[in-house]
Specification:
Number of helices: 16
Helix content: 40-55%
CATH class of the largest domain: Alpha Beta
Strand order of the largest sheet: 4-3-9-10
Shape: elongated
Number of domains: 3
Radius of gyration: 28 Å
CATH superfamily of the largest domain: HUPs
Largest sheet: 4 strands, parallel
Bound molecules: zinc ion
Oligomer: single chain
């Protein structure tokens, strides 16, 4: 359902109507540095970006989506000092930097898949774009934006007067009191475009350049890769809040100085996931991954649901209890959806479905307000204005943005699909690994109730006969202490053939 999408643009410090210049929409998202597992704080950003992409597609736009992989070492701090994360990761694990990069790239992509994040069109790797980075630094040099020090080629921010505009910082606050660790830099905001390899040691990743053997600065990677794969200006550039002040300010300076064109028209930033102790970071002890969550009974989609409890521009405080309750919320949602009676109330009138979707669409189009969108989904399911088939159509539409796989039961650690029915005074709970056809549901419930009555009358012959039918159909029957009956359907197709045939 096409709608007007309003997005918060960091560059304008305001919510703005999104009007793209490119078709498909050019979307660039800063990707991971692959020297360790992604923690769930990193992943929150990719979930927000995925919702954005899904919302764009839902609104009818084509999207060309690029997420870079930073597999070249860069220095641990924004100030171009400190240790190289990649080399550090390699030393920690006794592997080569190249092996570290390949291993954690694969792990990251697996995380993305399990979170149902749609794959970008291109995953450019920094190591595969060194010539483009060198060419970009050369352009900047020719235009007079660089200078050389003993350890590298630097961007001269004094030559880019609007440098401090994007992050809305006072230049004097940046430049004063930062003499320490500045080395030969002329100004605290200047940053490395190309670093020379140290004379006394060999790096595992280094390349020839017109300035000497070395490696690129971090920021130049994103400028070079977005220029290589997307039109300029980009329609939307995304990243985490922590990118605004340095990484994105630098990216804008480089790209705009080199091309004379705007870098991106809309900038969107996701807030942090916080623990009680503060921001989740790889450097501290607060390191929770998707595997940690799985050990505690929280599936990747349960975590996705947890992320929807806060707006993406609001810090979200993480706790295992909070995430478990989101997991339960998702299970409840699936249960309600699974119990929708498809045969109730006739076919699908698409106007009714669209009308029911209005509040959900309003929430999405109001800067991706997911807490409101989830509430609107529940509200739509509660009402009885829609037929069963319309409700399913409503869920299918909403799930295009939510990405919670709501019409399929989760196989990967998600809650099992469950539906509880009452029939002739018997309470019967059905579980299955997929959506049960209505006729099969009826057939199971009817037999389970009949068996229960037979047992109550001590007619064990009849009860055993029904149990044998269930066994043949691959349905496991269990009498529960609370008097209810649980029927677990193994293979839906087999059960249907045996029990629901005419
Ligand atoms: Zn970036």
């Amino acid at each position: 359902m096409p709608k007007s999408l309003f997005l918060y643009n960091t560059a304008a410090a305001a919510k703005e109507l999104f009007v793209p210049e490119n078709d498909p929409v050019a979307l660039y998202c800063c990707g991971p540095t692959v020297y360790n597992y992604a923690h769930i704080g990193n992943l929150r950003t990719y979930i927000f970006e995925d919702v954005l992409k899904r919302a764009l597609m839902w609104c009818g736009y084509g999207v060309r989506h690029v997420v870079n992989i930073t597999d070249v070492g860069h220095l641990a701090s924004d100030a171009d000092t400190g240790e190289d994360k990649m080399e550090k990761g390699a030393a920690r694990e006794g592997k080569s930097v190249w092996d570290i990069a390949a291993f954690y790239t694969e792990r990251f992509m697996a995380d993305i898949v399990s979170l149902a994040v749609l794959q970008p069109d291109i995953w450019p790797r920094a190591t595969e774009h060194i010539p483009q980075m060198i060419a970009l630094v050369k352009t900047l040099e020719e235009k007079g934006f660089t200078y050389r020090t003993g350890d590298g080629i630097y961007f001269d921010t004094a030559r880019f007067p609007s440098y401090c505009d994007f992050a809305r910082v006072d230049p004097s606050s940046l430049r004063a009191g930062e003499r320490v660790g500045m080395g030969e830099k002329r100004c605290a905001t200047d940053f490395a475009l190309w670093k020379f390899s140290p004379a006394d040691s060999r790096r595992q990743m280094e390349w020839q350049s017109p300035w000497g053997v070395g490696f690129p600065g971090w920021h130049i990677e994103c400028s070079a890769m977005s220029l290589a794969h997307l039109p300029q200006p980009l329609d939307i550039h995304c990243g985490g809040m922590d990118h605004i002040r340095v990484h994105h300010a630098n990216e804008i300076a480089q790209t705009e100085a080199a091309t004379g064109k705007k870098c991106a028209r809309y900038w969107m930033h996701g807030e942090f996931l916080v623990l009680d102790k503060g921001k989740m970071a790889k450097s501290g002890g607060n390191f929770v991954t998707l595997s940690t969550l799985k050990e505690r009974g929280i599936s990747p989609l349960g975590y996705r649901m947890f992320c929807y409890t806060a707006h993406y521009r609001t810090p979200l405080t993480f706790s295992f209890e909070g995430a478990l309750s989101a997991e339960q919320g998702l299970a409840n949602l699936r249960k309600v959806i699974l119990s929708i009676d498809k045969s109730r109330g006739g076919g699908v009138n698409i106007d009714y479905v669209d009308r029911a979707l209005e509040p959900f669409a309003d929430a999405i189009c109001d800067d991706l307000n997911m807490p409101r969108a989830v509430a609107a989904l529940w509200e739509g399911l509660r009402g009885d204005k829609l037929s069963g088939a319309e409700k399913l159509a409503f869920v299918r539409e909403a799930d295009r943005v939510l990405g919670l796989d709501l019409l399929k039961t989760a196989e990967d650690g998600g809650a099992a699909a469950e539906v509880t029915e009452e029939f002739n005074g018997c309470v019967i709970t059905l579980t299955a690994s997929g959506v049960l056809p209505q006729s099969l549901k009826d057939a199971i419930v009817e037999r389970a109730a009949r068996r229960k009555k037979a047992k109550a009358k001590r007619d064990f012959g009849a009860a055993d006969k029904i149990r044998a039918e269930f066994t043949e159909a691959g349905v496991e029957v269990k009498d529960m202490p609370d008097g209810s009956t649980r029927c677990a359907v193994g293979d839906i197709g087999l059960a249907e053939r045996v029990l629901a045939g005419d």
